Amino acid sequence: MEPGDAARLGPGWAARALPPRLLLMLLLGRGLRGAAAASSYGAAAEDSSAMEELATEKEAEESHRQDSVSLLTFILLLTLTILTIWLFKHRRVRFLHETGLAMIYGLIVGVILRYGTTATSGHDKSLSCTQEDRAFSTLLVNVSGKFFEYTLKGEISPGKVNSVEQNDMLRKVTFDPEVFFNILLPPIIFHAGYSLKKRHFFRNLGSILAYAFLGTAVSCFIIGNLMYGVVKLMKIVGQLSDKFYYTDCLFFGAIISATDPVTVLAIFNELHADVDLYALLFGESVLNDAVAIVLSSSIVAYQPAGLNTHAFDAAAFFKSVGIFLGIFSGSFTMGAVTGVVTALVTKFTKLHCFPLLETALFFLMSWSTFLLAEACGFTGVVAVLFCGITQAHYTYNNLSVESRSRTKQLFEVLHFLAENFIFSYMGLALFTFQKHVFSPVFIIGAFVAIFLGRAAHIYPLSFFLNLGRRHKIGWNFQHMMMFSGLRGAMAFALAIRDTASYARQMMFTTTLLIVFFTVWIIGGGTTPMLSWLNIRVGVDPDQDPPPNNDSFQVLQGDGSDSARGNRTKQESAWLFRLWYSFDHNYLKPILTHSGPPLTTTLPAWCGLLAQCLTSPQVYENQEPLREEDSDFILTEGDLTLTFGDSTVTANGSSGSHTASMSLEGGRRMKSSSEEVLERDLGMGDQKVSSRGTRLVFPLEDNVRLPAQSPE
Amino acid sequence: MEPGDAARLGPGWAARALPPRLLLMLLLGRGLRGAAAASSYGAAAEDSSAMEELATEKEAEESHRQDSVSLLTFILLLTLTILTIWLFKHRRVRFLHETGLAMIYGLIVGVILRYGTTATSGHDKSLSCTQEDRAFSTLLVNVSGKFFEYTLKGEISPGKVNSVEQNDMLRKVTFDPEVFFNILLPPIIFHAGYSLKKRHFFRNLGSILAYAFLGTAVSCFIIGNLMYGVVKLMKIVGQLSDKFYYTDCLFFGAIISATDPVTVLAIFNELHADVDLYALLFGESVLNDAVAIVLSSSIVAYQPAGLNTHAFDAAAFFKSVGIFLGIFSGSFTMGAVTGVVTALVTKFTKLHCFPLLETALFFLMSWSTFLLAEACGFTGVVAVLFCGITQAHYTYNNLSVESRSRTKQLFEVLHFLAENFIFSYMGLALFTFQKHVFSPVFIIGAFVAIFLGRAAHIYPLSFFLNLGRRHKIGWNFQHMMMFSGLRGAMAFALAIRDTASYARQMMFTTTLLIVFFTVWIIGGGTTPMLSWLNIRVGVDPDQDPPPNNDSFQVLQGDGSDSARGNRTKQESAWLFRLWYSFDHNYLKPILTHSGPPLTTTLPAWCGLLAQCLTSPQVYENQEPLREEDSDFILTEGDLTLTFGDSTVTANGSSGSHTASMSLEGGRRMKSSSEEVLERDLGMGDQKVSSRGTRLVFPLEDNVRLPAQSPE
Lengths: 711, 711
Description:
2 copies of one chain form a homodimer.
Chain A: H1 11-15, H2 21-28, H3 33-44, H4 50-90, H5 98-116, E1 128-131, E2 138-143, E3 146-156, H6 168-172, H7 178-194, H8 198-203, H9 205-237, H10 246-256, H11 262-271, H12 275-301, H13 314-348, H14 355-375, H15 380-398, H16 401-432, H17 440-468, H18 475-483, H19 489-496, H20 502-532, H21 550-556, H22 561-571, H23 574-591, H24 598-601, H25 607-613, H26 616-620, H27 629-643, H28 645-651, H29 654-668, H30 672-682, H31 687-694, H32 704-708
Helix pairs in contact in A: 2-4, 3-4, 4-5, 4-16, 5-16, 7-15, 7-16, 7-19, 9-10, 9-12, 9-17, 10-12, 12-13, 13-14, 13-15, 14-15, 14-16, 16-20, 17-20, 19-20, 27-29
């Protein structure tokens, strides 16, 4: 290349001086190198005719313009969605959620793009060049003595070779599937973890874990097997034109098991529906996303020794299980570790004087989780989820007030944009995606299968959980959970990742239709369903449900006091108690400024270490009164109430009093001494019991306390 | 491709289940398709040997891991920078700014990567395949009957063909230059526009425009010509090994004329240095970035008819000038239009009840500016700047209080991350960029040239501006401006865009060194320089400088009152007055909730339209007391003070009193009635003059008022 040729690039260079190639590439992910390429080409082709150069430049310009226009299309779609959402919120319309709306607008634009635009010939010039034995990821091509580097974009199915030069606009709006996994999902998932309402989440942790792990696995296998039946049927009827293995069916079961009740939860939030139901639904949907991802990779990894994928191979099966456990625990660890590191950094530096730095650090550390997990071969999205939970549980306590709202708001905006983007893309994809395989039998079968799968997931599991729960999961709750089995962004992202084979294309189309149907119908039906099922609304989410909550009590029956005590013991099971006391006594004091001083909880011989790790604030307010901690105090208060059930009900307000006290503490934060004073003066009679609650869970008291409570 | 093969992808698929390919591609921009490619390949190559498949998979995994690691490197760098910045701020260290720090860390990591890592062989398999006449942007390659699509990545200079398989890590950390233009610069530039301190900016608008446009052009031509001399000298000495045209020199002049006094301004902010100096420096640097971008594209577009680029071609020159004007005004219009549209949308909807929606809309509209400008062939970065200014001036007024802080904080974080990213990349690039051309003569020449260019830019222009300014730009200010000619992100981004030719590579290396030198030395020297030049610090940025400001007065000489009145008239020149009254009477009322009702300012015959456009709030508080408006009230107060100079100085505090009143209004906002009461009671004697200020600028009064003031 000769010097000075840039100066001879011609006016075209100036006109497209700053092409947003990468911004676009980031989102469109394909065909965007064209502009860059043609530009380089224009620079290089000095010896070729000026006409040709001009043509290439025009082409590049045109392509660049189209890229901008297609991205603009999405932005305008989102803008339109936002304005309509506002109108809906303004008029309190609840039958259509913003995500449903985004899909509708996407659909409309998709129809316009599909049928309204002329099929312009592609700008990409294609050249067939036969290679010998394998595809390389990079090609060096020699053009009249100049070398050009090409990168592999992917395989083209033989039938599509001639349609590569198809409608440009349609191709432009079809994104690289990895965008969904690597750009759009992480903020959504992180936000889910970060905005988890911890108090209710942890109180229902056991049930949530059961629903998310067992339930998703059950649902996956049931759907997989049912779909295998459907596929067999299709083969008999002659509706199946290509292979469809059992593993494909299981894979479909895995991707479609990721529920995403975003519309239901939005309505719950708006109507302040029951917090426990909210926690169950939200917790389950957050965790089952992670389970579904890992499950689907494990199923793909299931590879029997022979080529007959129908045969069951124990070794391969256990390998898959091993992979599942490995990826899941690895990703979990990654997320937790970066969360803990962030907590330590924010605790031991005085970064909270500079909210901007703090927010930036928080953002970077959370992002690094994703990369770290990917670098170690784990799953970034799952790691990001647990990182979000850890950040909310520990780091959030150490942040300055400004950073707390900054980080919340930052991720809220990212989440909002990413989510609506995905949903409007889904609407668009129905018409612009070019590899749809519509199979009515499969689709109907899938709808039946997800219904049955959800039923087999919720009802039996709820039955078993109710054996151990004090607050039973009522029938109305179970029906609501059954009803709320929407499929959303995660199922879509998993389905679009690989649409190479016939089976996968059929799955993708079906998933898309399931998402549409569930979001529109269930989203619209939530409000009627809530009132039909008699689920109480208008609950203050920070308020504890009253001990005599109807929806619980009615279906719970009248257990005797001893039976209650028994259940109580079961709810606050050893795992949770162990975890709670460990967290409260060691983790919280080490990682945050709250909790009891380590010097009192750690054995004497690590006194120096304990002193180093305990922050001075802890001594000042031994009663942890910080905002986030109130979550746990509440849990504590709640559990005290649970333990001292028979005694507390005598003087009535004791339990709720403790709760509201802690709430006040969380809200006022600064007036901790005032708080203590108030307590000492006004609630002298409760002092002993309230001190008692602090000691409910130290490990050594585990055995004694339940025995004491009935006295 | 056969169905079910995904199931046979092997455990490797699971292990790298969610590669952050695109997140990485977004930032690394090259070589990242490898993983995807190999993955597709793995799926396709069923018939090839299992060994080979496994090898490809391993390769892909390795490459993917390296991508993650290299991005992690940057994140850790930024994290480290943040922590050190905190330490510096904590200990009030001012000799090194965060950007300087980011560069140092980048430099260290660059050295480690360069000399510490072994040159692993690249994972990219290359294949030379000779094509006939031109490079296409897409290649279809036929491998044993399967078709693969390849995209053009760019040309490789002949010397580098064999070094493509070089140290992978070094390649990985070398980003696609367009990343800087399309991902990192827009938030930086938008933030600059959005956070502009409008009051001082508009007061110094004339000077700022002069510095930014004339100054940058002067600086560009002087540097270009000096460098041409240097290049000639190098040719004589024999230091030049390739061609270096006059247009290249001018191009260098353009890119290096974009000043970026980020470190100086940070220190100004911290020390609360003089607000006018701040406004001059900040305004100039913001606008000259835009000028430099457009200037450099225009110079590239300068293409004389013949091939002899030395010859001056009038037609080509005027074409370049036309392109400059066209791109600049086009981009300006784009930015302003989207800003205005956003203002209208936020004014006429009640979106401010939903801050999340509002923030999302704001973000999307601002981003669409960039795309819109690019789609129309203008410059996105420049459009984004003017969009930011418009948004701050109009839209900001319509936002809810929460959205105001949200948008500010969102862009602040983005700006912070992007800026530090660029600077740490610069540090890294010094060692990892593989096409450096170090030419001592050129580098020394460039340092001399930018010094002379800056001098020729500041001193003569200041002299001419002082002829027309009441508040003279004192010598100390001029020296400070001369001193603050740092080069930063913009110069770097412009230099790295095209490093194909020898001349460009030399420019890039030189630019990098200039950035290093100026950021470190000038950044460290700002505080001593400020005290040495006697520039007052500790000024409340919201406070007007006192009329008897020493640094002004001392150097201003003792002008008589009449001379002062004369200057006054010149400062508030017709252009500004015209703009101000138009903005205050028409634009503000149409686009925001403040300003006088349109029904009073528009002619009677458009009464209905005026009524529709005027928001009801305006009638309630005819005195615009909203936060942002206080900026203009202050300007107004200031100008009143200016007009009534000889009279006001008699009773002393009048002017500053008006100013502080407006400030109070800006801060309290809600207590407007209280305000009015206070004014009516306590300052009855000033009521007339204070009413007078409201009427200083209506168009019809333009002529009469200055004549009235001396009385």
